[in-house]
Write a structure and sequence with these properties.
The protein is α+β, with helices and mostly antiparallel strands. Helices cover about 25% and strands about 20% of the residues. It is built from 20 helices and 38 strands. A nine-stranded antiparallel beta sheet has the order 8-9-10-11-19-15-14-13-17. α5 crosses α19 (about 675-685) and α8 crosses α9 (about 440-450).
């Protein structure tokens, strides 16, 4: 395990930090990770076993809530975006794919559940788990760590343990004395499930310990195929299956066989299998389960390459070593144990997604559903770009730039394979699920190229950005180009779409300027000012506008639903001009008006009725009328700098860090959204934030850390130190960069990656 350097230890001693803090820095950082943080209510994270950015995200699922009831959307399903709810009393099984912190869902592939006693092939119900293969459990018998999960399945008397490599889940089940012991493979199970989600499933039993197959689903990803290989540590005595498909007009001549018992060649829409074992008390049965986007043979090869043994502890240790290395990218000194847990859990969350989407041999399934070979990059999927362009990808550009370069390469491969010739909106398992608004791939690409992270064909990337921004048939882009805004008649989220397109167009302009393309710059810098067309000076807010140029008459500035915005109200969205906050401040009436606006935003009360119909906004994520639990306003606390009151940025940044991030279940004020909430925490804890990705600047705030060293990929280090930092001393008195006073409130990316030291001198009173 890598230890902290003696040089850093010496510097911390000089800073007068307590000995227990120094000792904490020399210990393993993964001990601070609490995967259960954020697993209840809006958190939607999962507590299972995975390595950083792993394709396998192995986790317990706690119920089988259907997506629809009586043909209508079932709002209770929203709680199960990640499959696990902390307050649930039962576990249905352990599936191998999950999203972290999304507001919609899919996945939950290949659920495994060990059982003892009489065979049951239905999951049962929460109120009576004995009616199925699910089991009650208690949190006192549950442990969640980085790349390890353990729970006692009370109804079966089985100890379940999970770990993983990048593409292979590893299960260890310790059985009690039992006349019957089974391992269920549920090929019907899924998250956001409904009757026609499973398109087809194939299973081949190769021998008495090896099974392969694949599953096709139609869900958030319209066409998704996942292959698997499953291996047992001991031979099963017998096996069987049941097809739960209720209507099958054509059955062919496979009916000649009894396919329910010991039949090795299975196919159907709704399959569950059981594998039966003879076990003694305390005997362990291990299962390796590998995934592939390409083929069953590739799944077997992934398993053999990554876990060629049956040493569970070795795989656990190797995965935890990967997490230790990931967490060591930033070595921070923080005021309290709780702060350590929040900080390193945030780093953990910021390394769960996106996920590797290619096999050990470099093959992957492309958007065109063909098999491709990744050349000189790792292919990734699950890019929740509406969320993650804001802080998560800038975070990677700083602490893990080679990975973000690969993500940009993955976006470019997506574009090359697209018949629409568009960059991804929400990349999802060789699909685009088109969720949310904007074309924020261009933000990620521009930010990576301008900061020197992406070394690929920058001109081709610029052309892809332009083509995406000019695809007229997508969500009002044609009207936006022609009119300078999207009319309300065209799109129900016309205002937020216009604002997001304007920001993205600014990113394209910055990239064009960087590459010397004046023609493209001129076009898109003009388009980037389209936000002005929806600002109504008579009310001081952004407002929906009709095709005839008039503003919508009936308009509620507090309502978050049906007012022209996606998951937000105009109070939050009217500040969404991150690329030209100076211009926004001018049209609003200057510094005084901006100050009053920000003060009101953070101190007024937003009654529950105004977000009652918006799933992604809940009371836990709201401070005043500022919705931190949803991303569009994540930059606004830093606008006090522009308004001439930086001390209010200091106050409110520290307030948000304390108010919205907690230890334990339900520890996040909203969806983590694939690392965005966590990336905000990490940046803000270190005292700076990327207000406008696509720029090479960060805006300063108030650091929570006492010290932090970022180990840059180029071999240099960047250190943040906060002198006299405490819960009361939240106000920055002076900032020094490499020993010289830093004027203003902005810091350049190049200053960070060239290495150096940023010192905040803190105090208990605002310096006005």
């Amino acid at each position: 395990m890598k230890r902290i350097s003696y040089r850093l230890l010496a510097s911390l001693l000089v800073a007068g930090l307590p000995i227990w803090t120094l000792k904490a820095q020399t210990d393993s950082l993964i001990r601070y990770v609490q995967p259960l943080i954020g697993t209840a209510k809006m958190g939607h994270t999962f507590p299972g076993a995975t390595v950083p950015f792993g394709a396998v995200q192995l986790s317990p699922d706690t119920d089988t809530i259907p997506y629809a009831v009586n043909g209508k959307y079932n709002p209770d399903v929203y709680k199960y975006c990640a499959g696990y709810q902390y307050d649930d009393p039962t576990i249905v099984g352990f599936s191998h794919t999950h999203f972290s912190g999304t507001g919609h869902s899919d996945l939950g592939d290949f659920l495994i559940m060990p059982t003892s006693g009489a065979l049951q092939l239905n999951p049962g119900v929460e109120g009576a788990p004995q009616t199925g293969f699910r089991s009650a459990f208690n949190h006192t018998n549950e442990v969640a760590e980085a790349n390890y999960y353990r729970v006692k399945l009370d109804d079966h008397g089985i100890l379940a343990e999970l770990t993983s490599s990048a593409r292979t889940g590893f299960h260890r089940y310790t059985f009690p004395a039992a006349e019957e012991a089974h391992i269920i493979l549920d090929l019907m199970h899924g998250i956001y499930n409904y009757d026609d989600k499973n398109v087809w499933t194939v299973v081949r039993v190769l021998n008495d310990s090896t099974v392969t197959g694949y599953r096709q689903t139609h869900g958030w990803a319209r066409t998704r195929t996942v292959y698997f290989a499953m291996s047992f540590s001991k031979p099963f005595m017998a096996y069987g299956s049941k097809n739960f498909q209720t209507e099958q007009v054509y059955r062919g001549f496979w009916r000649k066989f009894d396919q329910t018992n010991n039949f090795p060649d299975l196919a159907g829409q709704q399959l569950r299998m059981h594998f039966d074992f003879d076990v003694t008390a305390g005997e362990q049965v291990l299962v390796k389960f590998a995934l592939s986007p390409v083929s069953m043979s590739n799944a077997l090869a992934n398993m053999e390459a990554e876990v060629p043994h049956w040493d569970f502890e070795r795989t656990k240790r190797e995965g935890q070593d990967q997490w230790e290395k990931e967490l060591r990218r930033i070595e921070a000194v923080l005021p309290t144990e709780a702060d350590y847990v929040n900080f390193y859990t945030a780093m953990y969350h910021a390394a769960l997604m996106p996920t590797v989407y290619m096999d050990i041999n470099g093959q992957y399934r492309g958007l065109d559903q063909e098999i491709h070979q990744a050349e000189h990059f790792t292919n990734y999927t699950s890019l929740s770009l509406w969320d993650t362009f804001r802080a998560f990808h800038p975070y990677l550009n700083l602490v893990n730039p080679s990975r973000n370069a690969d993500i940009v390469s993955s976006m470019m491969a997506h574009y090359d394979q697209s018949v629409l010739k568009m960059l991804p909106i929400w990349s999802h398992y060789a699909n685009d699920n088109w969720c949310m608004s904007g074309y924020h791939s261009v933000s990620v690409i521009a930010d990576a190229i301008i900061k020197g992270v992406y070394k690929g064909d920058a001109q081709a990337a610029l052309e892809a950005c332009v083509a995406t921004a000019n695809y007229r048939r997508y969500e009002g882009i044609g009207e936006y180009i022609d009119r300078g805004y999207i009319p309300e008649e065209v799109n129900g989220t016309s205002v937020s779409n216009t604002l997001e397109y304007a920001y993205d167009d600014w990113c394209i302009a910055q990239l064009a300027k960087h590459l010397g393309r004046q023609d493209i710059y001129d076009t898109f810098i003009k388009r980037s000012e389209n936000w002005r067309n929806l600002y109504d000076p008579s009310i001081g807010f952004m407002r929906p506008r009709h095709a005839d140029g008039t503003f919508r008459k009936e308009f509620d500035v507090l309502e978050t639903h049906g007012q022209g915005f996606i998951e937000g109200n105009t109070w939050n969205y009217s500040l969404y001009v991150p690329h030209n906050p100076e211009g926004l401040m001018q049209v609003m009436g200057g510094q005084t008006r901006l100050r009053r606006y920000l003060d009101s935003l953070f101190t007024m009360h937003l009654p529950d009725k105004f977000f009652a119909h918006t799933e992604d906004i809940t009371r836990e994520g709201i401070i005043g009328n500022y919705v931190h639990g949803n991303e569009p306003a994540h930059h606004v606390v830093y606008l006090y700098n522009l308004a001439g009151q930086p001390w209010k940025t200091h106050e409110r940044v520290r307030m948000i860090l304390e108010n919205q991030y907690h230890n334990g279940p339900d520890g996040l004020g909203g969806n983590d959204d694939c690392g965005q909430m966590s990336a905000w925490y990490l940046f803000s804890s270190m005292g700076f934030y990327p207000v406008s990705p696509g720029s090479d600047e960060y805006w300063l705030g108030s650091p929570l850390v006492q010290a932090a060293t970022i180990h840059l990929e180029n071999g240099k280090t960047f250190t943040v130190e906060a002198i006299n930092q405490s819960k009361d001393n939240v106000y920055v008195q002076r900032v020094l960069f490499n020993g010289k006073p830093l004027k203003g409130y902005r810091l350049k990316h190049s200053d960070i990656v060239n290495g150096g030291k940023l010192v905040f001198e803190m105090g208990g009173k605002a310096r006005k």
